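Hypothesis: this fold can be encoded by more than one sequence.
Test: take the structure tokens below, design a sequence, compare later.
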């Protein structure tokens, strides 16, 4: 289950070369459980056929021929009322004008007026057209009216020119769709800090000590908190994973940097979820210059790094808004005993105990085997699940504690 499961999305496709990417968008949304109805404008039909969309969504794709068909008098109202969200991707300059001025001379234009839910547009046009004062005026009108925008991005366009006007990639548009669907979620108005990945402790300017954390579980938690409507700050080492759309990402490398970023974020946060695999040891004396072989084997002395959750626990009274702190325990033996000890010593409300001795759980795999332990003594073993599902469950328990 994700926020897209069962979501009713109306996808408007207009006449831009980026229309071919709309088929990928419709396909991905359908695979993730959304019900996608498609309306093509006449311009879109020059680039792509309704059959393409019907084939990927399993649902009828509508064109202007339907505007005057047997169901014409109810079609646009039916489509507009049943959809939670109208997504227009790609959205041409012409359609921006239509929306801004309420022009109802095609099926998409009429349906946009009949929409009950929100509208999200992903503009696609040549940079000069996008920057033109006429287009910018339409963009301003739509912004003021609460229409949501996904892009456009800077980049190379079909004309061969570069500039702002390129449609976002389907994956990024899906991030914006999730944000739009999440706006009234259980965590709306709440701020959540999530940490992800492993920290890096330098030895010299080119070498560091780290661990095998991929950051996947933390990124999934950030996405799940966004899906629940929270404002999310993601404190992470540079993992190379795509940042969840809508999250404020703070990149850090060392444990000390992560500590500073977390304490700063917690001044304003309602919940902290520490999924990062924080280094427990750092190098006592970081060499200013690269260590050279000719100088013989170096002796690297380790000292304790900061314990971030222990610091948060000490400051808890001063962090007025912070109501829930959740941690992870990655254990290869005595899972529940060790996790229970950490829950108490770090003054947590919830700890996710993860058995990393199992081949299907822990670092660098897509599944986790987790038992949740709560401060009131409750224990909740979760079945083997994907990191996305585990994230959703943990965020829902954090939400319950906040409520
Ligand atoms: N953690 C932390 N600061 C550290 C180490 C860990 O805040 N320096 C957090 C982790 O993000 C996690 C929890 O504490 O949420 C438990 O981390 P874990 O590595 O399992 O435990 P440690 O306290 O490091 O103890 P040990 O490694 O000895 O098991």
């Amino acid at each position: 289950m994700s926020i897209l499961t069962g979501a009713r999305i109306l996808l408007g496709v207009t006449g831009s070369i980026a229309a071919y990417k709309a088929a990928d968008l419709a396909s991905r949304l359908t695979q993730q459980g959304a019900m996608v109805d498609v309306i093509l404008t006449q311009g879109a039909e020059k680039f792509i056929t309704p059959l393409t969309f019907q084939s990927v969504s399993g649902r009828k794709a509508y064109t202007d021929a339907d505007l005057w068909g047997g169901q014409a008098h109810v079609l646009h109202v039916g489509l507009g009322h049943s959809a939670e969200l109208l997504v227009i991707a790609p959205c041409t300059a012409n359609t921006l004008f239509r929306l801004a001025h309420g022009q109802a001379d095609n099926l998409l234009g009429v349906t946009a007026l009949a929409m009950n839910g929100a509208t999200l547009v992903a503009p696609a046009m040549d940079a000069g057209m996008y920057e033109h004062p006429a287009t910018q005026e339409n963009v301003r009108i739509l912004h003021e009216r609460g229409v949501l925008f996904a892009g456009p991005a800077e980049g190379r366009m079909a004309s061969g020119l570069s500039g702002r006007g390129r449609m976002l990639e389907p994956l990024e548009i899906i991030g914006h769709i999730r944000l739009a669907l999440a706006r009234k979620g259980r965590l709306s108005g709440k701020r959540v800090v999530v940490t992800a990945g492993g920290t890096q402790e330098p030895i010299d300017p080119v070498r560091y000590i780290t661990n095998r954390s991929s950051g996947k579980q933390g990124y999934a938690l950030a996405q799940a908190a966004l899906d629940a409507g929270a404002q999310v700050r993601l404190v992470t080492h540079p993992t190379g994973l795509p940042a969840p759309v809508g999250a404020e990402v703070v990149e850090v490398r060392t444990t000390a940097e992560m500590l500073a970023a977390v304490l700063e974020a917690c001044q304003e946060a309602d919940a902290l979820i520490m999924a990062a695999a924080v280094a427990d040891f750092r190098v006592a004396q970081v060499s200013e210059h690269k260590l050279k072989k000719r100088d013989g084997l170096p002796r690297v002395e380790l000292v304790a790094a900061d314990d971030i959750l222990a610091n948060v626990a000490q400051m808890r009274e001063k962090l007025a808004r912070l109501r829930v702190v959740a941690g992870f325990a990655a254990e290869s033996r005595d899972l529940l005993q060790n996790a229970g000890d950490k829950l108490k010593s770090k003054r947590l409300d919830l700890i996710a105990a993860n058995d990393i001795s199992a081949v299907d759980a822990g670092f660098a795999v897509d599944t986790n085997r987790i038992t949740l332990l709560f401060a009131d003594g409750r224990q909740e073993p979760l079945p083997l699940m994907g990191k996305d599902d585990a994230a959703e469950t943990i965020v829902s328990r954090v939400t319950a504690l906040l409520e």
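Residues 191-402 form a domain with the Rossmann fold fold (CATH 3.40.50.10300). The mean pLDDT is 94.
Hypothesis status: open.
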